[in-house]
């Protein structure tokens, strides 16, 4: 069905593998297919968690496809950015939790792709960079906006303006990734996290995600009001009744 990605769904966990070896560069076809798969996974009630990774062990995504971009006119580049931006927003706004399993280089658009995910697990061999400054351009996939929201303005400017490559441990120390594991254990760790998330209330998880993502774009007062409305929404659900009953009965809840 897809040309540039592989999709496997097992036990409620969807694994999306970016498949343009050897370094999985992002081109317009892959962006379009990422948008399509995001819509497919959002609509599939059997999917509770999404893992995104790269094929091979060299790169997650080594950046955008420069061979496609280098001869584009500004008008064509604008259309390219519309497609890429729509894909990243679709991935970011999936109501289900998403995990980036970063198996290698995450440069440029690859690093920006990880920023659309809720969790970032990194192989110890992975490296990260936003090197667009070294090409005389700036990130165009959300890097100047999502990165400072995640790391703070000072650290984000350092990575954006210098374009330096950092290793997985440095990425973890600054908060770019949640955890670093050996490459051989990356997918097992990602699936273990996915199974843990799948065992939570899917409604509560999706509302937490929406509350955080939307609240970041509000002032504190508006965000707190938004949280209260979402809390009441979740409080009316069957999962809340099951969670409260399980707590009182000292058993593990079975969320539906």
From TrEMBL:
Tell me the Pfam families matching this sequence. Answer: ECH_1 (PF00378)
Keywords, ordered alphabetically: Lyase
Keyword Lyase in the entry? The reply is yes
Q: Name one GO biological process term.
A: fatty acid beta-oxidation
Q: Determine the domain of life of the protein's source.
A: Bacteria
CDD domains (alphabetical): crotonase-like (cd06558)
Q: Which GO terms describe its molecular function?
A: hydro-lyase activity
What the record says about family reads: Belongs to the enoyl-CoA hydratase/isomerase family.
Q: Which PANTHER family match?
A: ENOYL-COA HYDRATASE, MITOCHONDRIAL, ENOYL-COA HYDRATASE-RELATED
Q: What is this protein called?
A: Enoyl-CoA hydratase
Source species: Syntrophus gentianae
